Amino acid sequence: MLPASRFTTLDALLQSYQLQAASEAKSAKTIGIYTTAVTILRKFLEQNGLPSDVTQIGVQEFRRFILHLQGAQAYKAHPFTPLQQKQLTGHTINCYLRAIRAFWGWLVSEDIIESNPFGKIKVPKPPKKVILPFTGEQIRNLLAVIDEHSPIGFRDRTIILTLLDTGLRVSELTGLKLNDANLNERSLRVRGKGGKERVVPIGATVQRAIARYINRCRPDPANQLAEYIFLTRAGEPLTANRVESIVEVYAKKGGIAGVRCSPHTFRHTFAISYLRNGGDVFLLQRILGHGTLDMVRNYVNLAQSDLQAAHLRCSPVDNMRLKASKAT
Fold first, then answer.
1. CB 225 within 8 A of CB 176
2. Is 191 annotated in the active site?
């Protein structure tokens, strides 16, 4: 066990974690979440005259930090986004606390501290959030406003069809390279969370769209070593943020309302449509790249509630308007 010193401060240990995580090929997103969460904790401790040495941070400090998060305003410490009146969401708080709990687990594994005080703390569960899928009409309206006769328009249409047909995360879509597309076998090799690879099938329509985009519409890459499928006009790899903006712009043009207009909504739409059409739950888990069935169960529940609502509207017997039986 190291004595309390400058080597056991949050700042010093965060830098050590970042170096180790990068050497272990952890994703930039994961490292970023840990960095943000630990930095917010450090600032809270300093502002309240509490120690930032990990050997002196315990259960009481963490409980005070949780209360602080529950009353904090959104984007309070963000360098670019202005402070907002709304508070941090339950999902954001849960994400920060899980990251800090995992960071403290890393401290234990590195023999920097003896035990993880989070073992005595109950992390507040995030509220259950239902993300509505796109309807068929909304998807048709969205596609109708895309100029598929222009190279960029055809790229955007191909992106949306691919998201809808595969349920890929937006980062997985932008990470696709030319040699990941096996168009003869109608499949894509996808790199998911933690660098895990999986093969995702595609339909004939998406197969043709990707082939046409690559052969006719894809610009020359700015860097010849960049073999990503989807590129900007300038030949640079398309980013996740750019795809999010593309979806938002077309959704606004198409008058899409009442649903979250983001690439992730296509993932939900794919999963629910797959189940509605009789798809197997275990195959869906593999296609989506989930390690467990927990998330898939949410899609099952949504699909079942959707079927129940449809039956309420379309029940053959109810729609016959039969007179009530005069049972004896």
1. no
2. no
Q: Is 42 one of the catalytic residues?
A: no
**Tokens 């994961």 found at:** 30
- Known catalytic membership, residue 169: yes
Range(s) for CATH 1.10.150.130 in the chain? Answer: 6-120
**193 annotated active-site:** yes
Which of the following is catalytic: 155, 157, 218, 267? 267
Q: What is the CATH number of domain 6-120?
A: 1.10.150.130
326 in active site:
no
Active site residue 212: no
In this prediction, residue 303 has a pLDDT band, given cuts at 50, 70 and 90, of: low
Q: How far apart are CA 145 and CA 162, in angstroms?
A: 17
Lowest mean pLDDT among 51-55, 227-231, 323-327: 323-327
Task: Report the sign of the C-alpha dihedral through residues 285, 291, 297, 303, in that order.
Answer: negative
- The C-alpha atoms of residue 107 and residue 14 are separated, in whole angstroms, by 10
Which tens digits make up the pLDDT trace of 108-166? 999 999 989 988 888 888 777 667 889 889 999 999 999 999 999 999 999 999 999 99
Report the CATH fold assignment for 136-310. Answer: hpI Integrase; Chain A (1.10.443)
pLDDT the model gives residue 305: 59
From 169, 213, 218, 274, the catalytic residue = 169
**The pLDDT of residue 313 is above 70:** no
As a whole number of angstroms, the distance between CA 51 and CA 42 comes to: 9
Catalytic-role residue among 96, 228, 250, 299: 299
- Give the gyration radius of the chain's Cα atoms: 24
Domain with CATH 1.10.443.10 in the chain: 136-310
Catalytic choice (42, 193, 198, 276): 193
Catalytic residue among 42, 186, 264, 276: 264
Residue 298 has pLDDT above 80, yes or no: no
Q: With 50 as the cut, is the pLDDT of residue 47 above it?
A: yes
